[in-house]
Amino acid sequence: NCSRQQAACHPQDPEHMCRRGKDTALVDIRLVSAKTGYGMEGLVSRLQRSWKCAGDVYLLGATNSGKSTLFNTLLRSDYCKSRAPDIIDRATVSPWPGTTLNLLKFPIINPTCDRIFRRQERLKEEAAKTEDQLSIEEKKYLNQLKKQGYLVGRVGRTFQQQKSSTEIDFDPDMLSYSMDEDPRDPPKKHEEREEFTHNEVKDARWCFDTPGIVKEDCVLNLLTEKEVKLVLPSHAIVPRTFILKPGMVLFLAALGRIDYLEGEKPAWFSVLASNLLPVHVTTLSNADTIYEKHTAQEFLKVPMGGEERMKEFPPLVPQDITLKGIGTTEAVADIKLSSAGWVAVTAHAEEELLLRAYTPKGTALVVREPPLLPYISTIRGARIPGTPAYRTKKPPSFVENLRTTGSR
Questions:
Q1: Average pLDDT score over residue span 36-55
Q2: What torsion, rounded to 10 degrees, do the Cα atoms 37, 38, 41, 47 define?
Q3: What's the start-to-end Cα distance of the chain, in Å?
Q4: Which of 63, 172, 379, 395 could lock 98 by a disulfide, CB 3.0 to 4.6 Å apart?
Q5: Is the pLDDT of residue 181 over 80?
Q6: What does pLDDT average to over the chain?
Q7: Helix/strand/coil (H/E/C) assignment for every residue in the chain
Q8: Which distant-in-sequence residues (6+ apart) come within 8 Å of 329 by Cβ?
Q9: Alpha-carbon span 154 to 139, nearest angstrom
Q10: How far is CA 193 from CA 86, 88, 190, in A?
């Protein structure tokens, strides 16, 4: 809440980055994976240190950015009151791809000194554990996460709901039956939905999961629900690198195309997109024929549905791009093919490239300089003989050390 700090903020202070006229401040950036748990305990600790900023918390972002997954992970963490997971339904998704069906919320726990101390003790104990000391269930779950991502963390709860063992749940209806009922089939017990008490929510602060913001120039808006599931990565992306000479073309499914038009030397093109999207390399003379013949077919995969599907799908629109290489180990730029993924281009130093990139009409094609992952082309295996492709080289999984994520 920067409005309370305006008097103390210097206009060029990078910590607050205040924008005059708006009560907005960027105070932290976190790399997290709500799916594998990486960085989540650190995020919870950082959010707890923001308790002094009065107000609710909202998860904002574009559709399909993972807000609901983040909401569900925070729901079962120390950020949420211990009783809430038993009361609140997990985030559900509507039939329209990427949109949350209902506006969900959960009450945020008050990070008192005692709770922060107990949480730090739990994180220290878990950080001291080796994988050999984990239970069979924990090992199995951890191995599943490793298959989904390179960076893996564990999200736990310090505070559990305490249930009294002295209460006797006595229901006289379960001990009797009418003449019309079979005693061997007792009536089902009526289960009342558990609710928060007035005292629990009267001064509560809430974390909201909001509907996704629909981007007008996003390729996902053109796809069916089945196609969206293929385009959105469900596991960690394995980079695929190809070496192209002038006169060659790279297809990312039928959603993107990059032509290498002019240059003196070969260049490297590293594709970062869903592992389910096929990548095909061909010559410039054959590219149009391949697109016309195989679009909406299994060869290019997305879109799918044959000729009828392509009647409503927009054509690919070109954009010329000029790049100058900076070395064979460092990419010069990313060509972002809307939300289908991006291609990092690596070329010899001072080598000038003329490229032509295509995306469906109405979607955004962006050249990102500098690239997000400049050394991505070095994460590759041996060259596959007789092809422009390199073998994929998947980095080993990294399990986060929870000792570094405690509250300060």
A1: 92
A2: -100
A3: 20
A4: 63
A5: no
A6: 84
A7: CHHHHHHHCCCCCCCCCCCCCCCCCCCCCCCCCCCCCCCHHHHHHHHHCCCCCCCCEEECCECCCCHHHHHHHHHCCCCECCCHHHHCCCCCECCCCCCECCCEEEEECCCCHHHHHHHHHHHHHHHHCCHHHCCHHHHHHHHHHHHHCCEECCCCCCCCCCCCCCCCCCCHHHHCCCCCCCCCCCCCCCCCCCCCCHHHHCCCCEEEECCCECCCCCHHHHCCHHHHHHHCCCCCCCCEEEEECCCEEEEECCCEEEEEEECCCCEEEEEEECCCCCEEEEEHHHHHHHHHHHCECCCCCCCECHHHHHCCCCCEEEEEEEEECCCCCCCCEEEEECCCEEEEEECCCCCEEEEEEEEECCCCEEEECCCCCCCHHHCCCCECCCCCEECCCCCCCEECCHHHHCCC
A8: 346, 375, 377, 378
A9: 11
A10: 10, 10, 10
Name the band, by pLDDT with cuts 50, 70 and 90, for residue 90.
low
Sequence spans of domains, the chain: 31-158+200-214, 221-378
Q: Tell me, what amino acid is at 92?
A: T
Q: Nearest-CA neighbor of 149 among 222, 212, 247, 234?
A: 234
**308 in Cβ contact with 269 (< 8 Å):** no
Residue 101 tokens, joined: 């069906």
Highest mean pLDDT among 8-12, 86-90, 128-132, 363-367: 363-367
Q: Give the CA distances from residue 314 to residues 26, 166, 289, in Å, rounded to whole numbers and listed in that order.
A: 38, 66, 17
Phi/psi at 37 (5° precision):
90, -5
